[in-house]
Amino acid sequence: MSISAILLEGFADTATNFAPVAEQGALSLLNNPGALVIGAVLIVATLLLIFFLKKIIINTILGIIIWAASVFVFHVSLPLVPSFVVAAIFGPAGIGVMMVLKFFGLLA
Hints:
The chain is mainly alpha-helical and 108 residues long. It has helices at residues 3-29, 33-73, 80-90, 92-103.
């Protein structure tokens, strides 16, 4: 008997044992208006969270890209971990401040 046949047989046993539990759970949600309301609220909350955090996420990604370009492409000797944290939190503005501090010799 091959390993794939053994795995498929084990999966079939697990699925057979799990099916009644899943069926009971699904039937408990049927005609349950509370589950519908909770689901709708979670969907709306997720969409609002993504809408409001989109700018923060894009700012973080841009900051990390600019940090990587300045450290690895242009070989600016910034402190690795502090500059990465500043880039992740403050984005391009944070890297700009780090560059200005480096230019004036205030950053080691």
